[in-house]
Amino acid sequence: MSNAVYAALTRQAGLMQEMQVVANNLANSSTTGYKSDRALFAEFLAGTGEAVDRVSMGGLAGHQFDLEQGGMKFTGGKFDLAIQGEGFFVVDTPDGARLTRAGHFQMSAEGRLIDTQGNPVLNPAGGAILIPDDAGDISIAGDGTISSEGVILGQVGIVRPEGEMTRAGNTSFNAPGGFQPIEDPRLVQGALEQSNVSPVLEVARMIEVQRAYEAGQAMLEKEDERVSRFIETLRQL
Question: Is the pLDDT of residue 224 over 90?
């Protein structure tokens, strides 16, 4: 197989991976707290051991997340929270602490503040947030302090990651380097942060990737025809 075909196949595989990322962004364009994703590709050189010194290839190197804040939707929900500016909520999952901007929370039967998956929402000290059943008129201040009729019940933790994050789910991230509390968080009660995906831009990107894939497929077909003609010519000699 020629180097040109190897390079073309690598390009086609990369375009397929990019298409999967774009499709996932579109599927989550209305998901609360979702952050759009971009595939990052890296080029590497491989020695051929022939007259040509090396051949250039490419492959998926990682993902980059667009952490720009999404629009805010006011719901009036008592435990619906949206972060203004930087920061993430922390939830305790079976796989460890995860960061998220999806603030659609509720109370469990045990009085814990939990997310839609049943994971406890953590306070700045890393503990669960407990709210008494008889607590009325719940108010959550801009710094995350939860109070009922003037009595402080707890505080929602808002943190920033230390170093890079990796996606752990559609709306959750893992912070391998750890995280630290934000000194001056800004929360809005009764609101949710929407996805920051722009469907128009994602559809445009999808069309661009599709056209590039079709061009690569056409090149591979022409290369196959060229090799077939060459072999047929050799047979007739």
Answer: no
**At a CB cut-off of 8 Å and minimum separation 6, what does 204 contact?**
none
Cα dist from 146 to 24, 186, 216, whole Å: 35, 13, 57
Domain map (residue ranges) of the chain: 3-67+197-236, 72-193
Please report the sign of the dihedral spanned by the C-alpha atoms of residue 62, residue 67, residue 70, residue 76.
positive
Q: Specify the pairing of strand 158-161 against strand 88-93.
A: antiparallel
- What is this structure's pTM? 0.79
Amino acid identity of residue 43, one-letter, is: E
What end-to-end distance do the CA atoms of the chain give, in Å? 23
CA distance 143 to 158: 8
**Is the alpha carbon torsion for 174, 175, 181, 187 positive or negative?**
negative
pLDDT in tens, 169-216: 889 999 999 999 998 999 999 999 999 999 999 999 899 888 888 887
Q: Above 60 in pLDDT, residue 52? A: no
